[in-house]
């Protein structure tokens, strides 16, 4: 079970009603929300339904024991701190509990209820800090992955733009060469001695070349002006066709 906000709730599991009552009272004084269960099986049902910041369980329970319950709790709620209670504390049992993921242990009967409640509170705060750290690390990894993806997109877009600009420059360069070649041809025709009709056609073609060269210029041209230039081009093309038709007749 994933939790957005780390819970302050504590699940206390013991088959002795007195222990449940005493532990609940002590933890409530620390401002913690307490839920109790008499068996590991009952506790598992609660763990599947609700998030807990700490599991405080007796080691020796009827049916499933506290160590097995703690193992299942760690699987269901990895963020949850686990504290084992035992009336027969030994070095071996303590080491086993800690090896299996227990945060701490308590001996029964409690020597000091405030001290027991303090251990639970400290365990919750430590796991809360770890939980928030893991969330921040996850967010950081997600942010880095997203940033890397955006950088790849920008890089691809930049490459596409550069390729487009190169193609556009080549086309403008070729179009400029074509215009200059046509201009030179027209000048050659005029210098070779042309009739009045031919001279008029050459003049119109020169004007058409001039307008087209303006269209190919690098200087920015507003949309209305581009439209006007295109209109002039069409008029000149029509005029040249008319002149050529008249000269043939």
Structural description of this entry:
With 249 residues, the protein is of the alpha/beta class. It folds into 2 domains: 9-131, Response regulator (Rossmann fold, 3-Layer(aba) Sandwich), CATH 3.40.50.2300; 165-248, no CATH class. It has 7 helices and 5 strands. A 5-stranded parallel beta sheet has the order 2-1-3-4-5, sandwiched between helices. α1 (17-29) links the parallel β1 and β2 (33-37). α1 (17-29) crosses α5 (113-191), α5 packs antiparallel against α6 (196-216) and α6 runs antiparallel to α7 (223-248). The N and C termini lie far apart (94 Å).
Essential attributes:
249 residues, Rossmann fold, 2 domains, 5-stranded parallel beta sheet, 10% strand
Q: Brief description of this entry?
A:
The protein is of the alpha/beta class and 249 residues long. It is built from seven helices and five strands; from the N terminus they run E-H-E-H-E-H-E-H-E-H-H-H.
Helix and strand arrangement:
Layout: E1 9-13, H1 17-29, E2 33-37, H2 40-49, E3 54-58, H3 66-76, E4 81-86, H4 91-99, E5 104-107, H5 113-191, H6 196-216, H7 223-248
Parallel strand pairs: 1-2, 1-3, 3-4, 4-5
């Amino acid at each position: 079970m994933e939790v957005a906000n780390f819970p302050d709730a504590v699940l206390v599991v013991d088959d002795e009603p007195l222990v449940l009552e005493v532990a609940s009272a002590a933890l409530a004084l620390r401002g913690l929300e307490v839920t109790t269960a008499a068996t590991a099986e009952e506790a598992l049902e609660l763990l599947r339904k609700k998030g807990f910041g700490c599991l405080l369980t007796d080691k020796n329970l009827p049916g499933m024991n506290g160590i097995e319950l703690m193992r299942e709790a760690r699987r269901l709620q990895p963020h949850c701190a686990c504290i084992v209670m035992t009336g027969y504390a030994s070095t071996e049992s303590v080491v086993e509990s800690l090896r299996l993921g227990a945060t701490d242990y308590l001996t029964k009967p409690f020597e000091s209820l405030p001290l027991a409640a303090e251990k639970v509170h400290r365990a919750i705060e430590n796991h809360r800090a770890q939980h928030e750290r893991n969330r921040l690390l996850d967010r950081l990894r997600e942010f880095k992955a997203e940033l890397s993806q955006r950088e790849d997109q920008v890089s691809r877009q930049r490459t596409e733009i550069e390729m487009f600009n190169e193609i556009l420059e080549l086309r403008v360069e070729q179009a400029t060469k074509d215009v200059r070649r046509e201009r030179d041809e027209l000048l050659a025709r005029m210098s070779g001695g042309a009739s009045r009709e031919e001279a008029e056609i050459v003049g119109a073609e020169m004007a058409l070349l001039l307008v087209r060269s303006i269209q190919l210029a690098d200087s920015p041209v507003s949309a209305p002006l581009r439209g006007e230039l295109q209109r002039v081009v069409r008029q000149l093309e029509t005029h040249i066709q008319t002149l050529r038709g008249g000269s043939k007749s």
